Amino acid sequence: MAQAEVPYAAVPRGSTDGRVHFSDELHESDADIEDNGLFEHRETMEVADNDTLYYGMSLGTRRRMRKGRVFWATVVCLVVVSVVGIFWLYFDGINWMQRSKKRNVILMVSDGFGPASETMARNFVQQVQGLPVGYQSPLDEILVGSSRTRSSDSLVTDSAAGATAFSCRMKSYNGAIGVDPERAPCGTVLEAAKLQRNMATGLVVTSRITHATPGAFSAHTTHRDMEDLIAEYQIGNYSLGPMVDLMFGGGRCHFEPGPHVNSCRTDARDLLSEARTRGFRTLESRSDFDALDAHSAQSLPLLGTFAPSHMDYEIDRDPAQQPSLAEMTNKALGILSAATKNTNAGFFLMIEGSRIDMAAHTNDPAAHVREIIAYWDAISAVRAYVDAHPDTVLISVSDHETGGFSVAKQLGTEYPEYLWDPFALEPVKHSIEFISSKLLGQAADSAKQYEFVRDTVFPKWMGIKDATHAEILAVAQEAESVQLRQLLSTAISDRAQLGWATHGHSAVDVNLYAYGKDAHLLRGNHENTDIGDFIVQALGLNLEQVTSLIKNDKVVQDTPAVKQTWMGRRDLDAPEHHPHMH
Questions:
Q1: How many helices (DSSP H) and strands (DSSP E) are in the chain?
Q2: Where are the alpha helices (DSSP H) in 441-576?
Q3: Which of 36, 206, 282, 522 could pair with 354 as two cysteines, CB 3.0-4.6 Å apart?
Q4: Cα distance between the two ends of the chain
Q5: Environment class of residue 313 by beta-carbon count within 10 Å: exposed (0-12), middle (13-18) or buried (19+)?
Q6: Predicted TM-score (pTM) of this structure
Q7: Phi (first) and psi of residue 469, to 5 degrees
Q8: How many alpha carbons lie under 13 Å from residue 316 in its C-beta half-sphere?
Q9: d(Cα 519, Cα 534) in Å, to the nearest integer?
Q10: 299 catalytically annotated
Q11: Alpha-carbon distance 30 to 36, whole Å?
């Protein structure tokens, strides 16, 4: 019987012709094979036995082993790929996936706005407008938790350290602008959003654009008073170049060369001209603002400074001269949306209701409540934007509370009434800042000053019809700004029965609000640095990488900083804001 041809040529030890020779003598008979019952044909058995003799195992066994090896090799490959994938996701993959998705983050900071202020404003609107008792403000509807406010060196923070906690997600000392406790620059979420995700960026405020909160997102100085240097950072005069695409607010005086009647710089640099050289379009008036196309990205980068120092309080604002916070917010949203319309980048926008804080520093309840309502208007505008753009998240939080404000005041030694009167604030037409500046600007004529206070200040500007002779005389004769403001504050606050514990800040927790994508992650009580963590995680940012890039940038102003006095005087008529104007 012919032997089956073996389909492979194995060369065993001692072979002379390069092939293995098998013999029929290996099997006693065909019957042995047939009785085996394993194979139908001898030829098949020949091959099977050849394999068995040479490999020490049958063909079926080898096939089963081969399948086993393939199976286990597949399992090992899957395990390796899974482990590598997990490490990639942990170290960079999550960031990559986040960066590949379009996200807009809008952080709104209600400077100096505490829980009692929200209650007061809600009561005021509900009572004065005759709304149902269950009325909720635009913020009440999106309350998710609270934020703790301490800085690295005090239980009572200032705005600079408070904003640095948001921007660098780290605690730093009071006065720090984008620097760590060792006074070294720390990368901010705004810078990282621009560098790492190519996002459009913006700052919208009612203070000077160089003030503590906007400064902490866009600059790095060892003290908040170095606003000349902050302005230089904001137009891109550092290693990263221009990082802020849009800036709306006040503070033009820190961009104009000094000494000049409209400048508060302590050097002769003309930063407006430098900004234009770097490609910025500069705006300085309401007409400039109105002419700006809200749906065009062609105007970026933008620097809009609509007042020499802080913008006017809402209660004093002339709509023909200055835009409101809500108007600036809407225009910023339109421009940044247009700039990112055909990209996967999105934008980061920080909006601050800056002067909520300043009204509380002055203990001015009428200006305070109007600033809060103006902030609510901006909140409503942003919430409408979020509704139309579900890839957006709004976070609203305060850096701290100001004034130790309470919706109660004991007026005498007897047990107090359980009252506060929102209607005492309704007829007030101007802020204490405005009124005090007018009184201090009057000629030194005691009789005329008395008449002015009696006939104009109390009844027409403050809505007080029952002012006593002692109140009128004290206001008319006071020539010191801080004391004058205290007299005016007492007159309004006593009648409304609203209390103030300080002209500075307090350590109370502040409300935390969020709306839109992943807002639920902010539920509960948080450290202020958690706000920065949330933004970093939402956008997949690496602040440490930015920090390494700016570690050698200047953090101390070359010229002397204009030192601000105590917080109650950080307003327009205070001479430290206009050193060349007085």
A1: 20, 12
A2: 446-452, 469-477, 481-496, 529-539, 543-550
A3: 206
A4: 124
A5: buried
A6: 0.82
A7: -60, -40
A8: 22
A9: 10
A10: no
A11: 10
Tell me the C-alpha to C-alpha distance, in Å, between residue 306 and each of 69, 209, 287, 437, 477. Answer: 75, 10, 10, 20, 34
Give CA–CA dist 436/480, Å, rounded.
9
CB 282 within 8 A of CB 270: no
CA distance 220 to 556: 9
Burial grade of 443 (CB within 10 A; 0-12, 13-18, 19 or more)? exposed
State the amino acid at position 228 in one-letter form: D
Q: Given 151, 159, 337, 481, which residue is catalytic? A: 159
For residue 252 the two structure tokens come to: 């033009």
CB 121 within 8 A of CB 137: yes
Give CA–CA dist 335/173, Å, rounded. 35
Close Cβ partners of 317 (under 8 Å, ≥ 6 residues apart): 311, 324
Q: Which position has the token pair 């209650």?
A: 119
Q: What is the pLDDT along the chain (582 residues), one digit of tens a residue?
A: 444 444 434 444 444 444 444 444 444 444 444 444 444 444 444 444 555 555 555 666 666 666 667 677 776 767 766 666 565 555 554 444 444 589 999 999 999 999 999 999 999 999 999 999 999 999 999 999 999 999 999 999 999 999 999 999 999 999 999 999 999 999 999 999 999 999 999 999 999 999 999 999 999 999 999 999 999 999 999 999 999 999 999 999 999 998 888 899 999 999 999 999 999 999 999 999 999 998 887 889 999 999 999 999 999 999 999 999 999 999 999 999 999 998 999 999 999 999 999 999 999 999 999 999 999 999 999 999 999 999 999 999 999 999 999 999 999 999 999 999 999 999 999 999 999 999 998 877 889 999 999 999 999 999 999 999 999 999 999 999 999 999 999 999 999 999 999 999 999 999 999 999 999 999 999 999 999 999 999 999 999 999 999 999 999 999 988 776 544 344 444 433 333 333
Q: Report whether the peptide linkage leading into residue 259 is cis, meaning its omega lies within 30 degrees of zero.
A: yes
Beta bridge pairs of residue 143: 513
